[in-house]
Every structure is written in C-alpha cells, then in structure tokens.
Design a protein that fits this description.
There is one protein chain. This protein is α/β, with parallel strands linked by helices. Strands 1-2-4-3-5-6-7-8 form an eight-stranded mixed beta sheet, sandwiched between helices. Strand 5, helix 4 and strand 6 form a beta-alpha-beta unit. The radius of gyration is 21 Å and the shape is globular.
C-alpha cells in the first residue's frame, strides 16, 4: 500500500512538473480561435507572416528606406520620436515590423539570431525596398542587427544599434569583462538571464513562479527615462494586449531565450564590409540597463563602428526627439 502511495505521489509530481514547465500553445492571429488580423502583412517563403507599418514618405517615393527592429516588449507601433516633417526633410521611409511572435507576426519556434537577419532581408524583398537598405535596432531589438552585419552585410547601406543589448556569453568576449559587467546587474536580472542561457527549459516556469519576481525594473531607469516614459506610455495600439496577443512565450520569452542563448558568432568576429561611418552604436552615458564598458570594448576592437555616447542620457534615448534626429542624420549621411 505504501508503494502505491509513493508511485502515485511520484506520478503526480512528474505531471505537475511537466505542466509547470510546458508553455501554452500560441494563439495565432487569424486562426479560428485566435486574435483578429488588423495590419498589413507579408508572407515569407516558409509560409509565416510578418506584420508591418510604414512611417514617413511612402516607400515608393522615398530615397532612403530603413527597417527598424523594435526592442523587448514592443511592437511595430513603438513610439517614434520623429515628425512627418522631419521624415519628409530626409525623404525617408521607416518600415517598423513585428518580430516573430510579437503583435501580428506569426510565431517561429525555430527562431534564432540568424533567422532574424533573414526575416529582415525577406521583408525588404517582399516590400521591394531595393538591393540595399538601412537597418536600425533598439535595445534587445539590436541583436537582429548584429546578425544582419554577420549574415547579410551585402544588403546593407548602413546600420544603427541604439542602446544595443549584450550577451554575456558571446564568443570572443573576455570572460573577465563579461563577469564584471554581469555582476553589475540586479540579482534577479542575473538569475533571469542565466536561466535563459543555461537552463532555457525552465524559463517559462521561472517567469510564472510567485516566490521571486523574474524581472524587476525598479532602479534601472533614471529620471531622464522616466520623463520619456510619461510621453510614450499611451502610444496608440502599443499596449500589452497588442504586443503579446499571441502569448508571452512566443513573443517575450522566445526573444530573451534567443538573445541570451548560444550564438554561432560574436560581434568580435565581424569584418568591416562598409564604408567609413556606415555602422553606429548609440549609448547613453547614464544607462543603467546596459553596461557601457561592454560596448566600449567592442568598438575599440572594431574601430570601423562609430561610437556615440550621449551625456546624461539613459536607456530610452531613442524616444527623445533630439537624439533620434541625430541618429537619423548620422545614419543617412
């Protein structure tokens, strides 16, 4: 009888663990029980769809075509600190798209840093942006741009990485630098990123458990960021219901798992295939979310990347009108 109880307990425990670790299936946009479709989308060669929107001059008339990769917990509706008048001055069109699993773009269980680059390339082809175009990536959305520099540099006229994320396990980054930067993060950030890298199979459980919050932002944003947040918090169509409408796992979780997973390359392995001043990194000097010394090291080893450090700016500098204009001018010049 005691053996039967033990067996029942073990079976129940295994079942509970399995359910706790297993993420729910995605709610595909446009499927019978999924969220409705409201955006323009392109169909990729593998059958997936990417949702997008245009900002600025119509792409058919624009001299400069730019694809913008949004950051974590954002979408094609991200706030752009640019006026229509400024875009007309530049004669530029920005294509903002939902990365795989976000918004109304189909989930992609096999997504990786490499596939993000080819999604961008195929999006450009489907929209007939031409043989070459510009790319911008913000925060966690900068890892697809690193991938573009690796896998499709022949398609790029230029690139800007704005407050770009760093993977503390990138190949060819000195372990002492990685450890020094990693230790500066709040403990719960270290737990979350470490789980994403070393034990991704428990990441879903980690984000849902109640004993410890999995991510905290308190203390990470400076007053500069908080002032900008007040302006962008009510950006139309960019609430959590839009961003994670197909499920948090397919959008937020997969994004972190890819970003902090094992990569096939590191930025230090990139070679210069661009004219001088075509690739830029923008960083706020007071950014508490991303370590400045990491990007300092990268640009020291890759001097063909132009580094801009904005005094007293935090992590959200892309949402500052003056800084965004400077980013655009440096990229298109």
């Amino acid at each position: 009888m005691n053996l039967d109880i033990v067996v029942a307990f073990v079976v129940g425990l295994v079942g509970w663990v399995y359910q706790a670790l297993k993420p729910p299936p995605p709610k595909i946009c446009g499927s019978p029980n999924g969220p409705p479709l409201t955006s323009r989308r392109v169909k990729l060669n593998d059958g997936r769809h990417l949702a997008y929107r245009e900002f600025g001059v119509p792409k058919e008339k624009a001299q400069y075509k730019i694809i913008l990769s949004h950051g974590y917990n954002d979408s094609r509706h991200m706030h752009l600190a640019a006026s229509q008048e400024l875009m007309e001055e530049f004669n530029a069109c920005i294509i903002l798209y939902d990365r795989a699993g976000y918004g109304e773009s189909d989930p992609y269980p096999s997504r990786s840093a490499k596939t993000e680059a080819f999604d961008i390339e195929e999006l450009a082809d489907k929209l007939e942006l031409g043989s070459k175009f510009y790319v911008i990536g913000c925060s966690l959305g900068a890892y697809p741009i690193w991938s573009c520099l690796k896998y499709i540099p022949h398609r790029l006229l230029g690139a800007s990485l704005i407050v770009p994320f760093v993977n503390y396990w990138w190949p060819s980054i000195p372990s002492s630098l990685a450890k020094q930067s990693f230790r500066k993060l709040p403990l719960l950030f270290r737990f979350t990123f470490g789980i994403a890298h070393y034990t991704p199979w428990i990441y879903y459980w980690w984000t849902k458990q109640k004993w410890f919050p999995s991510m905290l932002s308190e203390g990470m944003f400076i007053d500069y960021d908080l002032e900008l947040l007040k302006k962008i918090i009510d950006t139309p169509n960019n609430g959590p219901d839009e961003i994670t409408r197909q499920g948090e796992y397919e959008s937020l979780h997969r994004d972190v798992l890819v970003a902090f997973g094992k990569w096939e390359f590191g930025p230090m392995e990139l070679t210069n295939q661009f004219k001088e001043g075509c690739v830029h990194i923008w960083q706020g000097s007071a950014d508490r979310v991303l370590p400045n010394e990491f990007n300092h090291y990268i640009v020291k080893k890759l001097p063909w990347i132009r580094y801009h450090e904005v005094p007293n700016a935090g992590h959200l500098l892309v949402h500052d009108h003056e800084n965004f204009e400077a980013i655009m001018r440096s990229l298109l010049s």
